[in-house]
Specification:
It is built from 3 helices and 43 strands. The chain has a 21-stranded mixed beta sheet that branches. The protein has a 12-stranded parallel beta sheet with strand order 3-4-8-11-13-15-18-21-24-27-30-33, covered by helices on one side. Strands 38, 39, 41, 42 and 43 form a 5-stranded antiparallel beta sheet that branches.
């Protein structure tokens, strides 16, 4: 990698010494203030105090500083009442700037026909357009847009270096690939440890994806606090294809996180899904704590064809603690030879509170044509039109289902087809009462017991193990079952069966809860589950 050349100290707005925790002094990063929406050729005097500073010039100058720099803007206070004052000698973006759109109160930088995309190739640059907005709280406060003049731009931003930050910026327009692309440069340098967000929106993309992270050298990047298919004012405005794509061997990336501030919202697309993770070689990526298929209120349906899609051999993907509602197909789909996917603690078919249905047109979880060693556990699935959990194809095996709450699915809660799961036999219930269930299953198999008000599997009651000699089982509840129809699954090693036949039992009146409704209210355990979605992941283990 070429060595950076230092820029003149005159452009360094912040040049004081800071101190590390051990007391060693380090130079603070420069701040460069974008003050025009024009996309001009870069000149040597741009971004000096009192001079024009384009975004393109600011990126080039930031990348010539060995420690990187902060690129930001201050805004006309007559337009942005909570705008902070510019530092002495630097100009704000003004309302008379040609790129200012008074109708929306935002400034727009338009990539002209034939112009090169913005490239971050050296690393350590922070583009943070919310720094000079007092109380900046996310996409609703964004004041700067990137747009394309026509369909000739492959991308708007290409990040091919390490440790950059990009936040508080809207993307719109037409792109052949994606608005943001993280990928290795022609020299082979990767794109690692970058942070996208908070406060990035992708809305009104008439072509292209929102973000694509691609190739084996693009690793350990994070996308947080950003919106797809929805403008900052909350209006639905779809992207054309997938919101976020991880492909071609990228690994260790995280979309979302444990806190509400990390949450991404995937609201709308014309043809794509919220998140697509595509192998082969893409490994150890995570989709955590996001809202998918719903709007920023968490209560209304967006316009999204699919939720999370994992395909073509992606390995060890984690899909944890997300809310997926209202999508036009499966909430979470895993295809082909994708391995060791973990799908855990998600609310599927719900609003963000977990108390109201936002129906799915497909299944809650669907494993198709080859996924192996998938773990699907502790998920709540409601109000689907395509079943709860479906597994198809003889190559789909060694998949483990555990403690999932499934109800109001319009079909069977668990469905296998085309020889899936090695054709493991369903257990058979031979006897049941208000506080026990007994039957036959594979010897030594783990038996999980569920009760439901209408023949599905809403409430996990507990587990036992089938006798290894005569392959019988008996489970006894310390009081009584919650609902009156009882069934079980059997797991042999990692292969879980479909649900057994159901038995109806008489539940004591003191144990019977309210029945289901089109918008079911939470049971006490449901409320606990929903509250866990807002806990740090490390703290959730105490509730297991």
């Amino acid at each position: 990698m070429p060595r950076r050349m230092r820029i003149p100290s005159a452009i360094v707005c912040v040049a004081v010494l800071a101190a590390l925790a051990d007391g060693r002094p380090v130079a603070a990063q420069a701040q460069l203030f974008v003050n025009t929406t024009a996309d001009l050729p870069v000149a040597s005097d741009q971004c000096l105090p009192g001079k024009v500073c384009t975004l393109r010039a600011a990126i080039e100058k930031a990348e010539s500083v060995s420690s990187g720099a902060i690129i930001t803007a201050c805004f006309d206070p007559t337009v942005v009442p909570n705008a902070k004052k510019c530092q002495l000698g630097f100009q704000p973006l003004l309302a008379d700037d040609p790129g200012f759109d008074a109708a929306i109160g935002k400034w727009r930088i338009t990539l002209a026909s034939g112009s090169q995309n913005f490239v971050m190739s050296k690393g350590g640059t922070r583009i943070e357009f919310g720094r000079f907005i007092d109380g900046y709280a996310g996409p609703a406060d964004n004041r700067l847009q990137i747009a394309s003049a026509d369909g000739n731009q492959q991308v708007a931003f290409r990040i091919e270096s390490n440790g950059n930050v990009l936040s508080a910026l809207d993307f719109t327009g037409t792109y052949q690939d994606s608005a943001l692309l993280l990928k290795a440069s022609l020299a082979g340098d990767g794109s690692a440890n970058n942070v996208l967000g908070p406060g990035i929106t992708f809305a009104g993309l008439s072509s292209g994806n929102g973000v694509r992270i691609s190739d084996p050298s693009s690793v350990n990047n994070r996308i947080i606090g950003s919106w797809c298919g929805m403008r900052g004012d909350g209006e639905i405005d779809p992207v054309a294809e997938d919101c976020f794509v991880l492909d071609k061997g990228t690994s260790g990336n995280t979309i979302g996180g444990d806190s509400a501030a990390d949450r991404n919202i995937f609201a709308a697309s014309a043809l794509g899904v919220g998140v697509k993770i595509e192998g082969p070689g893409s490994a150890d990526n995570a989709v955590v704590g996001n809202w998918i298929g719903i709007d920023r209120t968490g209560a209304a349906k967006g316009d999204l064809p699919g939720g999370v899609l994992i395909v073509h051999g992606a390995v060890r993907t984690r899909v944890v603690g997300n809310v997926v509602g209202g999508v036009d197909s499966d909430a979470i789909g895993v295809f082909e030879d994708s391995l060791e996917t973990v799908i855990e603690d998600n609310l599927l078919g719900f609003d963000a509170t977990g108390t109201k249905c936002i129906a799915l047109k497909g299944a809650g979880v669907s494993l198709n044509f080859g996924p192996k060693q998938t773990v699907v556990r502790h998920n709540r699935i409601r109000c689907t039109r395509g079943g709860g959990i479906t597994i198809s194809g003889a190559a789909s095996t060694n998949n483990h289902l555990s403690e999932n709450s499934i109800g109001e699915t319009n079909q069977k809660p668990i469905v296998f087809s085309q020889g899936a799961q090695g054709r493991i036999a369903k257990p058979v219930v031979t006897d049941a009462g208000p506080n026990f269930i007994a039957g036959r299953a594979c010897g030594g198999c783990t038996i999980e017991v569920f009760s439901d008000p209408s023949g599905e599997a809403q409430h996990f009651e507990g587990r036992t193990v089938a006798d290894g000699t005569d392959a019988t089982f008996r489970f006894e509840h310390p009081t009584s079952f919650r609902f009156h129809t009882i069934s079980v699954t059997a797991t042999n090693g990692r292969i879980t069966s479909e649900l057994s036949n159901f038995r109806s039992v008489q539940i004591p009146p003191t144990r019977t809860p309210d029945g289901p409704s089109p918008t079911p209210g939470p049971t006490p355990s449901d409320t606990l589950f929903a509250s866990m979605l807002y806990l740090p992941w490390s703290a959730r283990g105490a509730f297991r």
